[in-house]
Amino acid sequence: MHGHHPVTMASVDVTTSSSSSSSTIKGSCYASSTTDFTPLDMDTTLFSHIFYAFLSPSNITFKFELPEPMAVASSNFTTTLRFASLPIKTLLSIGSAEDAPTALLAEKSSRPSSRIVFINSLVEVAMKFGFDGLDLGWDCRDLKFIFLG
Fold first, then answer.
1. Whose CA is closest to 51, among 97, 99, 92, 13?
2. Contact 74, 52 (CB under 8 A)
């Protein structure tokens, strides 16, 4: 670690089990807009998963169009954590109340044409920047609206 930074990262512990094994997932959220706390500052011994929050698609094209600084930051995030002394899984988080309103995300999901663009772009960005998985974190209260399109 480079030094102590007064940044709070929310975290959660989840224990999963199957008939053959049990494991605990220790997750935390890292704000993509953070500039004073980098992935190099993280103590990777504390977590098994880090959620990179939040990226949002364009409200016009429904694609994830990352400006160059955000693209570089996303790539640095996954690369740094993949090659840390104790590598951890990185998940790309989509949606939050402040970033992408639920109504907009519901609209993207409601029509097959925009849903395909949204999903393809999401997978493309996750693969391009080396994320291990996805977290679709928006509040879907009206599922009828989303899936009847």
1. 92
2. yes
Closest CA to 13 of 24, 1, 23, 21: 24
Cα–Cα distance measured from residue 35 to residue 120, given in angstroms and rounded to the nearest whole number: 29
**Residues pairing with 23 in the sheet:** 16
| Structure tokens that stand for 36 in this block | 């004073």
pTM: 0.74
Q: Which two tokens stand for residue 48?
A: 């098994």
- For 12-23, letters b (16+ CB in 10 Å) and e give eeeeeeeeeeee
Q: How many helices (H) and strands (E) does the chain have?
A: 4, 5
Q: Report pLDDT digits (tens) over 38-95.
A: 888 888 888 889 999 888 888 888 888 889 998 999 999 999 998 888 889 999 988 6
Contacting residues for 83 by C-beta, under 8 A, at least 6 apart: none
Please state, in angstroms and rounded to a whole number, the distance separating the CA atoms of residues 69 and 138.
Answer: 25
> CB-side exposure of 16: number of CA atoms within 13 Å?
6
